């Protein structure tokens, strides 16, 4: 994915200019901290162009002068950190402005590694993005991988207008399998919020995992997208996986686990990856439709195979399946007026299967961004 040789834009602004720009554009800096990154994309000569780029340790941006087909008008931004990971206590805050009519891709070159924590220090990352009229922002990072005892919290805030388009992928793996670390970190928290231009909340979501001495709380829900209409937006299940599907017009629920609080690794059973995809905007309606159809088909086929080989207790409109029967779980929910947004939640046994799903389902973005995602 854009790993060929490319020229890099080295376009650094003074910190004083950055602060003035942040205030003028409505992007808020972290109180008490200086921003570590800022990028502004605007139309120049009819093309999407980086007009401002700033970064400082530990954050670095690589911006190809051209990525993908010459027929597409898009800017690709690769975000990375020195040393290839986030160190205990790091605090990264980044502002991104995508001007009217511009197309921007924010991605990574590899998984984001969160190293072991020192004491109670927590690594933090904040992204605040503003997406203009007829603009497209595609955020397609590789997954976050937390090392043993790591503590990590990230927050991403997107401000859109009615005709903006946004694709967001947010996902985490269970850790370094080769080192025997499986869901062995201390804290992982990821918040993703989308607001309309007038400040109206459109989508509010927090996923949080933490582990104590012998117990954990898994904040995960598959059968709701937790929009502003479904307050409270922070949800808790201890520790339960649930997924709701509409198959042949009937709502069915697959209950994967039910029981007392247990260690995080035990609660996650054989699942090694948790992912979320958010797709917003009428321009992306064809991608939303395909994902909904494919997820319905995939889950229907898996449930049918599992139900034929597993004796389950029958209840009206409900199907209960052993957690080791489904290797890949996905659920879709629409949000916003006229269902202009879609959220997809995934639990999978392997990172490769999620990469494959993302490549297939987001392939329709290639004509817009110049390259197929995750290829």
UniProtKB/TrEMBL annotation:
Keywords: Chaperone
GO terms of molecular function: nickel cation binding
InterPro entries per record: UreD (IPR002669)
PANTHER family per UniProt: UREASE ACCESSORY PROTEIN D
Similarity annotation: Belongs to the UreD family.
Protein name (database record): Urease accessory protein D
């Amino acid at each position: 994915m854009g790993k060929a040789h490319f020229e890099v834009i080295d376009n650094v602004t003074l910190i004083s200019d950055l602060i003035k720009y942040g205030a003028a554009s409505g992007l808020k800096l972290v109180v008490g901290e200086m921003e570590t990154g800022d990028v502004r994309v605007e139309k120049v000569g009819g093309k999407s162009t980086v007009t401002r780029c700033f970064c400082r340790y530990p954050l670095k941006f690589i911006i190809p002068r051209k990525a993908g087909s010459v027929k597409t008008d898009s800017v690709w931004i690769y975000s990375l950190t020195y040393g290839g990971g986030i160190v205990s206590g790091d605090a990264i805050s980044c502002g991104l402005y995508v001007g009217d009519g511009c197309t921007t891709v924010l991605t990574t070159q590899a998984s984001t590694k969160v190293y072991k924590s020192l004491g109670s220090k927590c690594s933090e990352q904040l992204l605040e993005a503003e997406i203009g009229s007829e603009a497209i922002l595609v955020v397609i990072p590789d997954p976050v991988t937390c090392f043993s005892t790591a503590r990590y919290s990230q927050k991403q805030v997107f401000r859109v207008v009615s005709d903006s388009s946004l694709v967001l992928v947010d996902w985490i793996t269970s850790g370094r399998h080769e080192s025997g670390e499986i869901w062995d970190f201390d804290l992982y928290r990821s918040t993703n919020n989308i607001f309309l231009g007038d400040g109206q909340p459109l989508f509010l979501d927090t996923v949080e995992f933490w582990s104590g001495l012998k117990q954990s709380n898994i904040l995960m829900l598959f059968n709701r997208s937790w929009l502003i209409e479904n307050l409270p937006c922070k949800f808790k299940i201890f520790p339960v996986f649930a997924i709701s599907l509409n198959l042949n017009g009937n709502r069915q629920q697959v209950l994967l686990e039910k029981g007392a609080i247990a260690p995080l690794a035990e609660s996650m059973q054989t699942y090694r990856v948790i992912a979320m995809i958010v797709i917003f905007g009428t321009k992306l309606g064809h991608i939303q439709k395909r994902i909904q159809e494919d997820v319905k088909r995939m889950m229907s086929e898996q449930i049918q195979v599992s139900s034929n080989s597993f004796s389950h207790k029958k209840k009206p409109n409900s199907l209960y399946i052993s957690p080791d029967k489904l290797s890949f779980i996905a659920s879709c929910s629409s949000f916003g007026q006229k269902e202009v947004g879609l959220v997809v939640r995934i639990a999978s046994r392997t990172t490769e299967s999620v990469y494959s799903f993302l490549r297939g389902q987001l392939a329709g973005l290639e004509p817009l961004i110049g390259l197929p995602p995750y290829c």
